[in-house]
Structures are given as structure tokens and as C-alpha cells.
Design a protein that fits this description.
- It is a single chain.
- This protein is mainly α and about 600 residues long.
- About 60% of the residues lie in helices and about 5% in strands.
- The protein has 31 helices and four strands.
- A four-stranded parallel beta sheet has the order 1-4-3-2, with helices on both faces.
- Helix 5 packs across helix 6 and helix 18 packs parallel to helix 20.
- The N and C termini lie far apart (about 95 Å).
Length: about 600
């Protein structure tokens, strides 16, 4: 026996009218679904009203007139593990799968969801193939062809939409036999914006013979996806002085697909956005765009700013976000013919090369140029506009150790109007050429100057080239790069180059080796000790000039260390000063500040 229900007469009457319209003999099927939204804060009776409407559909003249599905999302979460996550972590596909599984509990409905089952199977196959390719690429460090069928690719790239369409089609088939009533309670547990958007697609494809009754805390007809006032407020927040507010606004607007590419480009720019969280948020949102129904051609406007960020932003998190966004955009361009977009091949190649340098994709083995005449290669280089072809020619010139190409490569390296990739490749080739470069003062000076370049990959190649050439004038500049460059890969390349001076006794004088060793010992003492332990050629010379520290400063008191430090001013031994300063730092005594500052002035 049903409980007595008082009030909400108007809502009950509207519901009855809709049901009558569906069962009336002369009723015609409408395209749009019927939707009842029961919303508000907890305790106002949403669940009670929902249950009352459910019972109305089974009373009196309505008995056996409708198919019904009742889902309480709170109960579904108890036995559906994929729903047992934070609200913001629930994926639309999880919500769709839960609805699908609920329908399958009715044996007579299973055959209506064959399309959904096939779509889900295609998605699973595509994901497995992609995973296998990624594992193979990681194992072999070689490019592996991704062999997806057109259907698998389409489902993978538009999985939520295709699953929603298929689920809606199954619902429509059920409703064609008998009108269908779907009741959702506690929908607030899954009412993410992304889930709402996908559910709308299910409703649309379910057709006009379906009634949806949804109880939750938010008004889905006026949620943030449709709320222009909220959208305007978030857009205004983009101009806020607080970078945390700006970063949150970027993420929120991204969920609404309410961001323009030029906005994100501006926030990604290091000169215009000083806060790393803002730049990181902008990069991430650019990476999400290829997954939306947007024009890839517009997204491609962000490629060059993303390349600049992945190469030159001094924050690793921003570089990583930009690299991931670039990889997603690159993958989207591989299948752009589905969207009938004409792509700029030059931009795509630049993105491809930058992703290889960033370690996000594997490089494909290209056939080496057969031409071996440096003069012809230089001529071909000057007549080509293709970046990829120009880089291949430079690589070939380096491999040939073509002394005829040195001046051409130097000019490329010094020309800041050239593409950074061309300049980086030129620096690498100068290192490969070897002796002809080492004896060319202008070439060496160009490489030294390049260690101060704005592009991190250009600096990296210059440091590696200097490590191959070992010019005496490079020691101080490499040391400065180790101390000052913001990028660890450049610092590591400079460190390895400095070690080459120490190891190669045939090309380095004793004085240069000692100078390089002393620098290395200052910044990487363990690396220096390791070199001595390896007994490199003529290591005795280095050992004789680097005796073990005879005084154990760690056991001295603060006053004793300060006395030693003051005495050191006359000896000016930087190594001893460093050891004393480290010992004082461990004491943490403020009395040491003044003598430390005085010694800094002396060594300056």
C-alpha cells in the first residue's frame, strides 16, 4: 500500500498530463524527450516526490502502459566500483556504463543494446592496440605503426559521443515498443558538467517516447554549462591580479569549452604570464581542445607557442604540460582528413621534430642522403624551403666532416632569424666536423656565444659540440653554463663537456685539465672524486694538485671556523673557503654572516 502523499499537486498533474499524451490513441511521437527536473538542497523532499511520480506511472489507467527504469545513484555506487571515486573523477563513460548495466538487468531488454555493446568492444580494442604500440615503442625506442580501423579510430576519438548515441538508440528501441519512463535519484553524485553533456546526448537520441525524471541538487537546465552569468564572471576573473584565481578560471572555462585559442596563447606566453600555474593551466587546456568538437585548424594556431613553451619555459611542469598538449594536437592532425582540414605541413613538421627532441614521440629512421659532395649539398640546402630536408642536409654535412661547410654552418648558427631547429642542427654538425671547426676561431666563438641563446635546444647542441671540440677558451663559458642555465639538460651537457677536457689528455694541456677539474670539483665534487678514482690518464697530476683536505672543519666550533675564514682572506684559497662556509652553514649561527659576506667581497 502506498504512503499518503500531500502537496505538489501541480507537479503531479503535469506529470499525469505527459503520461496521458503518451498513451492516448491519437498521440504522435515527438522528437524531443520529456524531462522533469526535481532540484534543490537536501531535505526538501526530492526523493519523496520522485517516488510519488514513479507510483503514479503504475496506478490506475497507467498500469502496464509504460516500461520503467529506476536508478538511485547512491545505491548504484555501493556495488559499482568505478563510481566509488571523487565526484570530479567520475568519467562520462562510467556513468553510461552504469546505465547500460542497469538496463541489462531486464532480460527482455538485452537485445536492444547490441549497438552499444559493439561500440564498447571497438573502444576496448582500440585502447588495447594503442597500449601495445606504446609499450613496443618504449621497448624498442622505434616508431611503431598504429593500425586502427576507421571505425576503431572514430570510436576512440569520440568515445563518449559514440557510446551516448548507441545507448540512446537502444533506449529509443525500447520506447518504440512501449513508452519508457526513466527515474534518476541522487543524481548529484554524478552530475559533473562532462556527464551532464553526455547525458543530454543520450536523451536526444532516446527520442520523444521517453520521459526522464531526475532528482538532484543542481538545476540541470540552469547549470554552469548554460549559465551565461557564471560564464561572464569566470571570463572577468581571467583579468584578476591573483594568478591562483586566473588558473582556476582557465580550468573552469575549459570545462565549458568557453576559451578561445588566442586567450590561451596569451596565458602561455612567458613574458605575459609570470605565474607558472597560469601557464601550466593554459597548456593543459590547449591539450584538451583536440578532444572537443573544434576546428583543428584553429587549434594549430597554438602550435608554435606550445613549441616555444616546451623548449624554453624554465618551469619543468609547464614544459611537460606543453609537450603533452603538443603530442595530443599532433595525433589529432594524423587523422585530420575526417574533419576535412587542410594543414600547414611546415607547422606539423616543426611540431613533430620538437616532440622528438622532447622525448614524447620516437624518431622515424629516414633514409640517409646519398649525395656526398659537400658543395652540391650546400647548394641543395640553399635552394630548399623544406625544414626537414634542410636538417637532413646539415646532418649529412656533419657526418661527412665537411670542412667546406664550416662557414655556412657558422652563418646559420649566428643568424637568429633562422628556425631554432636549423640552428641547433648546425651547432651539432659543427661538433661532428671536428678539427676543421676547432681550428676555426669564428666557429668556436659562435658556439660559445650560442650558450647564451634564448632557445634551450640550441644551447644544448652548442654545449655538446664544445665537448667534442674541447677548445681552451670554452672552459670558463661551460662553467658559467653549469652555474647559470635554467635547464638541467643544458647544465648536464656542459658538465659532460667539461669532463672531456679532463679526460682527454691528448687535446688538453695540463693547465686546462686542472682548470676544468677545479671547476668541476666546485659544482660536482662527487663527479670529480669519481674521475680521480677511475685513474684516468695522468690522474696523478690532478691528484698532486688536489690533495685531500688536511683539516676536518666539521669538528670545529663556530669561533674556530670564523678565525680560519678570516685567515683565509690573505691566502685566498677558494676551496678552503667553500669547506669552511659549508661547515658554518651546518651550525646555523648568525655570527658567521658578517665574515662570510666579507669573504664574498674579497673573492668578488
Amino acid at each position: 500500500m502506498n504512503k499518503i502523499f500531500l502537496g505538489r499537486d501541480e507537479q503531479q498533474e503535469r506529470f499525469r498530463n505527459v503520461l496521458n499524451s503518451l498513451v492516448a490513441p491519437a498521440s504522435t511521437s515527438e522528437e524531443d524527450p520529456k524531462i522533469f527536473l526535481l532540484h534543490g538542497f537536501g531535505g526538501i523532499g526530492k526523493t519523496t516526490l520522485l517516488q510519488r511520480l514513479y507510483h503514479i506511472s503504475r496506478e490506475g489507467d497507467f498500469q502496464n502502459c509504460f516500461n520503467t527504469l529506476f536508478m538511485d545513484w547512491e545505491k548504484e555506487r555501493e556495488h559499482y566500483i568505478a563510481l566509488q571515486v571523487d565526484h570530479d573523477a567520475i568519467k562520462p563513460a562510467t556513468m553510461l556504463e552504469a546505465i547500460y548495466q542497469k538496463f541489462l538487468q531486464q532480460e527482455e531488454w538485452k537485445d536492444y543494446f547490441q549497438e552499444y555493446s559493439e561500440t564498447h568492444s571497438l573502444l576496448k580494442t582500440a585502447i588495447e592496440k594503442i597500449k601495445q604500440v606504446e609499450e613496443e615503442q618504449e621497448r624498442t625506442n622505434q616508431a611503431v605503426r598504429l593500425d586502427l580501423t576507421k571505425d576503431e579510430l572514430d570510436v576512440y576519438r569520440n568515445s563518449d559521443e559514440r557510446l551516448a548515441e548507441a545507448l540512446g538508440a537502444g533506449i529509443a528501441e525500447i520506447a518504440d515498443k512501449k513508452p519508457l519512463l526513466i527515474f534518476f535519484d541522487t543524481y548529484e553524485l554524478v552530475d559533473r558538467i562532462e556527464c551532464d553533456s553526455v547525458l543530454r546526448k543520450v536523451m536526444k537520441h532516446g527520442g520523444g517516447q521517453v520521459v526522464w525524471v531526475i532528482a538532484g541538487r543542481s538545476n540541470l537546465a540552469d547549470n554552469i554549462w548554460r549559465n551565461e552569468a557564471a560564464k561572464e564572471a569566470l571570463t572577468t576573473a581571467l583579468a584578476d591580479n591573483d594568478p591562483d584565481i586566473v588558473a582556476v578560471a582557465i580550468r573552469a572555462l575549459g570545462r565549458l569549452n568557453a576559451l578561445e585559442v588566442p586567450q590561451l596563447i596569451r596565458f602561455l606566453n612567458l613574458d605575459q604570464s609570470k605565474d607558472r600555474y597560469v601557464r601550466e593551466a593554459a597548456a593543459r587546456e590547449l591539450g584538451y581542445m583536440p578532444n572537443e568538437q573544434v576546428d583543428i585548424a584553429k587549434v594549430l594556431e597554438a602550435v608554435e607557442p606550445l613549441i616555444d613553451a616546451m623548449r624554453n619555459d624554465y618551469m619543468k611542469q609547464v614544459r611537460e604540460a606543453a609537450s603533452n598538449a603538443g603530442r595530443k594536437i599532433y595525433r589529432a592532425t594524423e587523422y585530420s582528413y575526417f574533419k576535412r582540414v587542410n594543414l600547414d605541413k611546415t607547422i606539423r613538421k616543426k611540431l613533430h621534430w620538437s616532440l622528438i627532441l622532447a622525448g614524447k614521440i620516437s624518431s622515424e629512421q629516414e633514409e640517409e642522403l646519398k649525395e656526398t659532395d659537400p658543395i652540391i649539398l650546400i647548394r641543395d640546402f640553399n635552394s630548399s624551403d623544406d625544414i626537414n630536408e634542410r636538417e637532413r642536409i646539415i646532418h649529412k654535412l656533419g657526418k661527412l666532416q665537411a670542412s667546406e661547410a664550416v662557414i655556412t654552418l657558422v652563418n646559420l648558427l649566428q643568424d637568429t632569424n633562422q628556425e631554432p631547429d636549423i640552428r641547433a642542427t648546425a651547432a651539432a654538425a659543427l661538433g661532428e666536423i671536428g678539427t676543421a671547426t676547432a681550428n676555426h676561431n669564428q666557429a668556436i666563438q659562435a658556439l660559445l656565444n650560442t650558450l647564451g641563446d634564448n632557445d634551450s635546444f640550441v644551447r644544448l647542441q652548442a654545449a655538446q659540440a664544445l665537448g667534442k671540440l674541447i677548445p681552451p677558451v670554452g672552459i670558463d663559458v661551460l662553467y658559467q653554463a653549469i652555474r647559470q642555465d635554467k635547464f638541467s639538460n643544458v647544465r648536464n651537457a656542459a658538465k659532460e663537456a667539461l669532463k672531456k677536457y679532463i679526460i682527454d689528455s691528448n687535446r688538453s694541456t695540463s693547465e686546462d685539465r686542472l682548470n676544468a677539474f677545479n671547476y668541476l670539483k666546485l659544482v660536482y665534487p662527487k663527479e670529480a672524486e669519481k674521475l680521480l678514482a677511475e685513474k684516468i690518464t695522468h690522474s696523478k697530476f690532478l691528484t698532486d694538485h688536489n690533495p685531500l683536505q688536511s683539516v676536518n672543519f666539521e669538528n670545529m666550533s663556530v669561533s674556530e671556523l670564523i678565525d680560519k675564514l678570516n685567515n683565509n682572506k690573505t691566502n685566498k684559497d677558494p676551496d678552503e673557503c667553500v669547506a669552511i662556509a659549508k661547515a658554518l652553514g651546518k651550525h646555523g649561527d648568525s655570527d658567521a654572516l658578517e665574515p662570510l659576506i666579507l669573504n664574498l667581497l674579497v673573492f668578488e
